[in-house]
What does this fold into?
Amino acid sequence: MSDSTAPPRPGPAATRTVLLRGGEVHSPADPFATAMVVERGQVAWVGSEGAADAFADGVDEVVHLDGALVTPAFTDAHVHLTSTGLARTGLDLSGTRTVEQALDLVRAHAEARPHDRVLLGHGWDAARWPGQFPPGRAQLDEATGGRPLYLSRIDVHSAVVSSALLDLVPGVTERAGYRPDAPLTGDAHHAVRAAALGAVTPAQRAEAQRAALREAASLGVGSVHECAGPEISGEDDFTGLLRLAAEEPGPRVTGYWGEPVTGPLGAARIRDLGAHGAAGDLFVDGALGSHTACLHAPYADAGHTGTAHLDAAAVAAHVVACTEAGLQAGFHAIGDAALTAVVEGVRAAAEKTGLARVRSARHRVEHAEMLTGETLAALAELGMTASVQPAFDALWGGEDGMYAQRLGASRARTLNPFAAMLRGGIPLAFGSDSPVTPVAPWEGVRAAAFHHTPEHRVSVRAAFTAHTRGGWRAIGRDDAGVLVPGAPADYALWRTEELLVQAPDDRVARWSTDPRSGTPGLPDLTPGADLPVCLRTVVGGETVYVRPPE
It folds into this structure.
């Protein structure tokens, strides 16, 4: 682009009128648009280069796109920003290939940070290591020199810790999920995580949050849904994040607080925290990698069916209270038994409050990985939004992946059925669950379009919509996430190659690949192809990221 690369402007920049021209504007209002006008933080016009001449003299700024692609900014519909920032600035074990390599990194991290009250790390995955054994407590004690250490597994539903951290949590050995020399799960894990994160100072928290938001903005993300709660992060962390996001330029943050609501007082408390809903990570179960997702049949590699945190009655009580209070409800549910509990509970709530009221509330379910035909149909009937993470399949799917290890190949092939969800009428909102998988929206779109299981694939266009407009619809906004007049001016500029309308194979409807359909193109996301590079991100008409000159 040939315009200035000045730093982001303060709030008044959003009141200026800007003409963008000479690029490709991804808009259903005009599939061949090359120009766009932004005024007072909203899209005012999209159209052709010739028509743009009429606006050129009446705007405050002209941005010459030099062929860049303009798209709606992405929404990441499930993140944990403080944990994401801490993982980026702390000990990252996601690239380790052996337990010995992980211990070496722990040792080096401990030596490099002699003054930290608690050492924090994230991302280990023993399923990818020879022997598939996590580090033992004695090994961690030796590597840290006896200091407190918390290392969350990649799915954040279990952790290994040092003895010194256990000593900071009285009674932890009596809590559910504690085993003498195995990863902690359940209540024991929540207790040690609270102790570990409690050692992070407010200044460290704020810097981690800023780092996570900066990273998101640099990837073309204009809004995120923070999924917090008493078992994830403290109230100070949550309210501090919302305050920081309101005061400083960056992606929009919609906050969810995952705590059960039983009546008007509970609903008022959720609102007082600044939360959009009592949703997000309100746990019905855990995760497959940690053997804590709740299943109807036992794990293929363990003699149990996981962990249930809420039953259908508890789900129903929460949904009734939220619906009557006009509050969005939602749940974390991954295993098939957990999803059964969700749909049975929400259906029972609908029988009490009325189906129309439940549907209009747009309650959510996070992850929704092990859907059956029955639960899929029920989610559609109940009007629930599925907030899902395509990168999970990219990381753990396939015949030799973690899903197949945990469930067997046959059950694993049923996971994350995005095509069936769309066909069934379930609204999809895509996210990363960062730091479980990185904030990487184009990679998420690619993962959905090229799912390990071909029948679960969706078109690039459908996946892109789920990662842009889908996130806005999930918070009750149907007027955003798309570049049409009147929509919020949340957009990103991209350097990319030729645009096309792409369906990954003949199992995906291909009518829209015909140029005569007037469908706007998107970058080629074939595996191995270069992904678009974000040049600028704009939120509400205000620039929040500009790529540095190369």
